[in-house]
Each structure stands twice: as C-alpha cells, then as structure tokens.
Amino acid sequence: MPDISPDLFRRWYRSFEEDTDDQAVYRPGDFPFPPSRAPRPSLEFRPGGGYLEYAAGPADRAVPSRGSWEAAEGDGVRVRAGAGSRVLRIVAHDAQVLKIRK
Amino acid sequence: MDNADIVETPARRRCGTEDVHRRMLNESLNYRLNRAAIENLAFAFATGEEQPARAEVATIDVVVHIVHSTDEQDLSEEQIDGQLAVLNEDFRATNADVKNVPPVWQGLVADSRLEFRRASVDPDGNPTTGVTRRRTSKASFSDNDAVKFSAQGGTDAWPADRYLNIWVCRLSGGLLGYAQFPGGPAETDGVVITYTGFGTTGTAAAPFNLGRTTTHEIGHWLNLFHIGGDDGTGCSGTDFVADTPNQAGQNFGTPSFPSITCNNAPNGDMFMNYMDYTDDAAMFMFTHGQILRVEACLAGPRQSLLTAHP
C-alpha cells in the first residue's frame, strides 16, 4: 500500500525542469512555472478513485482522459485513463510536490 | 410518510443527474454538428466554391474582463490599449516585423481586414469602456473555464454574438493562454490570457511581452489551427490550410531559417507564423490560406459580430 495523504488529491503539473535521472517531478497549478504556450502534461487524483490525465489540446488547453486509480503493491498506484493502464511508483508527495519514479 | 420521503429524494436526484447528462450529450452533439458545418464552409472557401464577399474592413467589439487576485494583476488601461494596438497591427499585417518574413514567403503575408476596438455599449445598452474588473479570491485559474463564470470567482461572458470576450487572469500551470473554437457554447466563448502574457507594458514579461499570445488565441477563436497539425510531432496532421508548409510539431523559442522537418526542404517550417509556438518576437505573419479560413468563419459562425454595431 502506498502512503497516500489527502495532499495527493489535486491536479499535478509536470515540472520537467526539476526532474532527476530517476524521478519525474510534479507541482500544483500555483507553482511559478516558466510560461509556455503548450499546456504542461498533468494528472489529477480524486478521493474515491477518480483519475484524470491531461494532454495538450488543439486550442492550447489541456484535454482530459477520465479514468480511475487504485492502490497497488508497495508504493504503487495503478492508474487507468483512456485505453491504457500503468503503475505509478510514488516516491514522495506532500502539498507542494509529487515525485514519481521514472 | 418518512419512508416516502426517503424514497422520493434519491429519485429526484437521479432525475437531476439525468438532466445534466442529457444536456451534456446534447451540447456535445450540437458542438459536433456545428463543427462539421463550420469545416464544410471553410472547405468551400478553400476550394473556391465560396468566395469572400466582404468588401470593407470590419471592426470587432471587444470586452476585456480583468479578473485579479492582487493589485499587480489589475492591469492598467494603458496595458489594455497596448494589446489592442498589437491586434490592430497583426491582423492588418502592418506590424513592423512583418519585413522579417523570409523573402520566399513575403507573397503569402495576408491582411485579415479585421480590426478590434473596446466595446462602447454594454449588453444592457449603457456606455462602457469595454473593460470589466473584479477582485477574486482565487489565486489562479486553470483551463477549466471557471474564470468565465461570476459564481466561480470569474466574470460572466458578454453575449458572444456581439462581443469578443477576452479574460485576463493568472493562469495556473504556467499556461500563457487558451481559446475556444467557433461552434462552442456562448457562455464560454472567447479567449483567456495570463496577465504576464497580455499587452506590451506593465506586467507583460519577456519573451511573451509583445502581445502575440492574444493574436495566437484569437487566431483559434477565428477557427485557425496550429500549423504543426496537432498530431504531436508527426507529419500527417494538417491545419487545413494549403499555403502553410507541412511541418512536424510546433516550434519554440526563436528558430533560425530554414528549419527542416517532414521533408519540407528547402524552406522548412513556417515557424514565424502566429499559429506556431515560437516566442513573441519570432512570430509575425498569417497567410492568405489562413485568412480564407477566417473569412469562412466570419461568413458563418461569427457573422453576427460584423453586424452587431453600426
């Protein structure tokens, strides 16, 4: 069981600039990202198992794929969105940052 | 008696949910039908079956909704005027940097014969400066359209058949702006620009301080697509415009000419087009083919904007 606190339940935007070799870093929307015409990929966990994955759309806003999340083994969270399913390994998260193993 | 209430309450809730569901399905179906009609008209213009009939320069009435959570975000009148001045250059091809278009494409530079001005009459018929301002408790807005509703901390749209709505706020996730294509719901119609990407002075910050984010988003609002074709970095996507070269993905920063992708040598990508993703200083043209799509849009879904005022 991953250690999940309510801090996880928000929309997280990829902060590529902060990635390390083995971790993908995500930040909440209010984080001072450098501005960009393209929307950053983002993902959103909701209490009760709802999950959304956002990708760039044709009018510069992100387009969500709706799905679900559930706890998996160890620090894993299985997410389903669109046609795919994968396991995210959450290394750490609080209200300011979410780190997922690459 | 109590039991009857208990049974009835969830029954009502199901009805409510069903209503919302039906409304969303209807809106989605309407949107798809609207989009098909709009693209059919654009295709008729592109093939010459329909011709632009508009003789004169048209002016679009604009309302700028400033939605601010700090004093800094409450942009000055000067900053708003600076943005409108940029639009009136870019859409008339009178921008000074149009001379930087590579010689091979100079002949493609197009004047949309569209101008923009602050609305002078509000939806109730009263005089207005064409600007609304409200303080909000929301530190930022995402791309979920909350900024377009007073009840969600934003400002309600003015009637989309008479005004171009431009919302300026702090967008979250670092997003510079986003738009709605023609054919969508009136209550969310318009463009949203982050306060650091609007105008040329005040809060506008380099490299997005020449007002081109608003030019780009209004391009979408007039039915233009990204010239990269919205298929990621593939070569099969299209912007449905014949005179923009096929190119892979969007470009960023300030590329050097030529930038070759998708076998488009020798001239490469038209990265200086307003519908690419380059920095403000690196984009400075629409093409004739793009403006033909704009003409189709003005003959179709946005026709009422041209006749909304004397």
TrEMBL record, chain A:
Name the domain of life: Bacteria
What is the protein name stated in its UniProt record?
Answer: Uncharacterized protein
From TrEMBL, chain B:
Q: Which UniProt keywords apply?
A: Disulfide bond, Hydrolase, Metal-binding, Metalloprotease, Protease, Signal, Zinc
Stretches assigned to the Peptidase M43 pregnancy-associated plasma-A domain: 155-298
**A molecular function GO annotation:** metallopeptidase activity
Specify the superkingdom. Answer: Bacteria
Report the sequence similarity comment from the record.
Answer: Belongs to the peptidase M43B family.
From the Swiss-Prot or TrEMBL record, give the protein name.
Answer: Zinc metalloprotease
Q: Which organism is it from?
A: Paractinoplanes lichenicola
